[in-house]
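Here is a protein:
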Amino acid sequence: MAENKIFAGPRVRRIRNGLQLTQTAMAEALGISPSYLNLIERNQRPLTVQLLLKLASVYRIDLEELQGEAGSGLAELREVFADPLLAGELPGDQELVEVAEAAPNVSGGIVKLHRAYREQAARLRDLAALLADQGHMAALADTRLPMDEVREAFEARPNHFGRIEEAAEALHESLSPGDDLSGSMKAWLRKEHGLAVRTLPVHVMPTLRRRFDRHSMRLFISERLSPFDQLREIAIEVASIAIHEAIAAELEQFRFSTAEARRIGRFELARYAAHALMMPYAAFLAAAQRAKYDVGVLAARFQVSFEQAANRLTMLQRPGSGGVPFFLMEVDSAGNRLRRAGAQAFPHARFGGACPKLNVQAAFAVPGQLLAERVQMPEGAEFLVIARTVDGPQAGFHERVRRTAILIGCEAAFANETVYGAAAGLPAIAVGPACRLCERQGCLARAEPPITRPLGLDEMATGLSVFDFQ
């Protein structure tokens, strides 16, 4: 009979702490003394059948969770300590069982740290091989990280994923959210998965936007986020659970080369799914056409941010029911391009997006103001481009605000289908794909010499820019 005794003190303690109960409060609810509960939590007394049933009925606990072993956490720890670096540290598995059982969060942290160590070692090996092949002269900028692989893959294809769109529409309909999508998603998480959503103050979660604690079954959201971004974080969690098969099917199409790239790709698709859930395809397309693609109006109608509505405009390319093929680019004040996407892939060859004369750069001088204009490329192609700054999470007194700028564009032929069509009647701004690829002469904004033309041919004349050519 002794073999059937269940010692699950650390798990009972985690359940109590997750519910924010004192030992006295839990003991009273279970009909036992606080001292007896204390002995149970210290594994000095086993759980009786009667107490197991009481725990299950009072706190809706799965009995298998209390009776099972450390499960996958133990298996992952075994894999970590099988590493040659750690293989001689432990004489057996007993200590691993104790860690996985008594401190699952610590166990998960060890596994995550070891995973990061292996991936970093793989990166260093790749970098070492690159340096060796090129005689130690390769620049660090030439290395191709997993994030680069994911960005290139997403930018090179249309920003539309049919399986995710259909699954998100069906999920939205089943939630019947009315005017309270956030409340409907929270209710679904609690009812279907026993998962509660809680907003945490900055001092508790200073560096994270969102964290899912699988042991207490709570989703923590940072109070730094705006209500719109909090809604998106909840939608990401709901979509990751409810339509994970559609996300996995789309992820499989990319065939990323590393586990890190697959994780990044999975997150990008979950973010896409969140937008699809917050702004269902058919409803959003109809509203966009009625509002002539006014981003501000769409943001207000669907109770989302300007950035979220702008992103959604690039996704409207369902076969037989498409919208204006917008593309999008996000940059910071230093000119770093953070994100690019397009309804028909981002137009690298025809637009580029690196010209310093684009209004996305001027937007930082007038935060929050929307700028619209028509631009012309050197070969004659014209685009309508709209730009506006967006602010990141709420910054503290000692922090600098994270401010980026969004550019939304489409070919000038579609301008009259949008509310911004008046800008198409203005004189076009002459821009280029990037300074290194542009041969416009006399450009006041030129920041680099072109790679196709020699400089300094005439010592008797100088141009408006130090990089001018003849």
Observations:
- The domain at 309-433 is CATH 3.30.450 (Beta-Lactamase).
